[in-house]
Amino acid sequence: MSEAQTVTDESTAASDLTAFQQNILTILAEEPMYGLAIKRELEAYYGSEVNHGRLYPNLDDLVDLGLVEKSELDKRTNQYELTDEGHDVVLGQIEWVLDRFVTDETRGDEVRELLE
């Protein structure tokens, strides 16, 4: 695998993935995208260029793990879409972060304000 640790059981959790791979899943949670659109979103988030040699092997790993589905838009362009398992991984990561971040009512209010 490119950046991820070796996954030995059949179920993948966010903890089995790199932050880069988690960010790809988060981007795809919005809508299916082609590779260049994912690259642009990552570059906007990181504020620096994302190398094709880093992006596409990680996308392939996520496909191999069953978290992302790859389909062909045309002969040169592939589209990537979050699978149900990928959705569950993103949701599990959000739950894990919120469980640790929301330690009191003030923090709960901060999160509720973000959602409005």
TrEMBL record:
Keyword Iron-sulfur listed? The answer is no
Q: Where is the Transcription regulator PadR N-terminal domain?
A: 24-88
The record, for InterPro entries, names: Tscrpt_reg_PadR_N, WH-like_DNA-bd_sf, WH_DNA-bd_sf
Gene3D superfamilies on file: Winged helix-like DNA-binding domain superfamily/Winged helix DNA-binding domain (1.10.10.10)
A GO molecular-function term, please?
DNA binding
At the top level of its lineage, which domain of life is listed? Archaea
- The identity of this protein, by name, is DNA-binding PadR family transcriptional regulator
State the species of origin. Answer: Halorubrum trapanicum
**Highest lineage ranks of the organism?**
Archaea, Methanobacteriati, Methanobacteriota, Stenosarchaea group, Halobacteria
